[in-house]
Structure formats: C-alpha cells, structure tokens
Amino acid sequence: DSELPAQEYGWRPAVDIYEDTERFLVPAELPGVDPQKVDLRIEDSHLTLKGSRELEYPERRENYHRLEREYGNFVRTFSLPTTVDSNKIHAEYKHGLLRISIPKRAEVMPKQLAVTLPE
Questions:
Q1: CA-wise closest residue to 45 among 102, 113, 5
Q2: Residue 40, SS3 per DSSP
Q3: All residues at 6 or more sequence positions from 11 whose CB lies less than 8 Å from its CB, including other chains
Q4: What angle do CA 25, 1, 93 make, to 5 degrees?
Q5: CA angle centred on 63, ends 33 and 30, rounded to 5°
Q6: 54 with 33: CB under 8 angstroms?
Q7: How many angstroms separate the CA atoms of 29 and 25, rounded?
Q8: pTM higher than the cut 0.85
Q9: Cα–Cα distance between 8 and 16 in angstroms, integer?
Q10: Whole-angstrom distance, CA of residue 43 vs CA of residue 48
Q11: What is the pLDDT of residues 14-41, one digit of tens each?
C-alpha cells in the first residue's frame, strides 16, 4: 500500500484484503462516492483505486455545524502478486461497497489429485 502526500489526497477508504484458494477479494468502503467517478486500474503489477467524495452542499459550507465524514480525493495502491490473472479482475459497487475480485491464474491454484487403489 503506497502513501501519498496528505495535501493531495484527503482520506483513505477502509479496505480489507482476503485470499481464498481461487482469488483475492478486496472490499473497499466508498459510501457517498459516485461509482461512475471511481478510477480502478492495473499498472505494473499494482492495483490502484482512485476517486473523490464531494461535500453534499459545498456552497453552504459555513452552514455546517459539524463535519465528521471525510471528503476530497482519495487513492489506494496495492501490489499484486505474480499469481493473479490481471485480465480477469472484476469489480462491482453496491450499497457503498466496492467489491474487487482478483482471480488467481489457473496454473497456480491447488489441484485435486485422484488416488487409485491397486487391483
């Protein structure tokens, strides 16, 4: 996970990374973020998630009594292992959660071997 200057990026969405036998799963919390404005890309064995969450009423900023949610630009970058198939990454957005599925290449997944009994 890379770090960028705070003045350029205002917040970091919470992300979990989970691995099973077939894939890595990366759910990212993005409530209030327009999924059409999320930039998800793979470059040089890195997965980068970039976007922004805008203040709901920016023209009336002085009318807010409290601002606890974080706003502005964000970016998260993760190194991908060589075992993933970057051509088959899938992402879906539902209820403020972006779920990224990163499958492993078929040749690195465990294989079930048959055991035969002698006759």
A1: 102
A2: strand
A3: 53, 70, 71, 72, 74
A4: 40
A5: 10
A6: no
A7: 13
A8: no
A9: 23
A10: 8
A11: 999 999 989 999 999 999 999 999 999 9
